[in-house]
Amino acid sequence: MDAFLSACMRLYDMAFPGEPEAFTRAMFDRYAPEYLRTVCENGKPISMLFSIPYPIIIDNATLDARYLYAVATHPDHRGKGLAKQLLLQEAAEHPVFLRPMSESLFDYYGKVGFAPFSPIAIETGEAAAPSGAERLVSTAEFLRLRDSLAPLPHCRPTEQFLSLYENGGGTVAHGSEAVAIFERSNGGILFKEYWGNPVFAPRLAAFLGGKRFELRRAAENGKCFGVGIGVPVGTAFLAALD
Question: Alpha-carbon distance 15 to 147, whole Å?
């Protein structure tokens, strides 16, 4: 890795301490430098974000949208509007969206021009005995099944994006009736994106070796999961790097 990307990685580590090194390496291997946006001073990055290809599927068309991730500014340069500059530069080129890391950041992004979207429900429960219809699936099969279950419009992760879940997670299905992105955590299963009838979640959790589960799914009356600019009304967005 060259000196500039190493400096970007140090800025990332400063902004997001505790991230697993394997995940950080995977991010930079897949998306830097092509999808890395920076503001520099004297040749050194002082603000950055990743602008990750993440299409939005609408009726008979696909929008070239971007998922913005790892918005970070060096502490010595905060308050100068550098992150806002990067965000609006990307919004001028593509529909863009992201998941705020905390509730308070919804207000910050609102002032920049991002509107909340994709209300979700979060459900929890205990695992139940598998039925035999559960199976791990490839990312390609996951996306095929997902397309049959997810309403339009929706943000559709790419296979490259889904590969970031390989450490400790993956994709799973219950027949053709439910599909999910999962992550193992403290003896439980987090379904980071769940499509289909949630009645199958307890069986999928048991199949994956969990005693309990948490899932998120699209729900009209839930809390908005993301914020975006240029995102069609009613778009569903569930899979983020969190």
Answer: 35
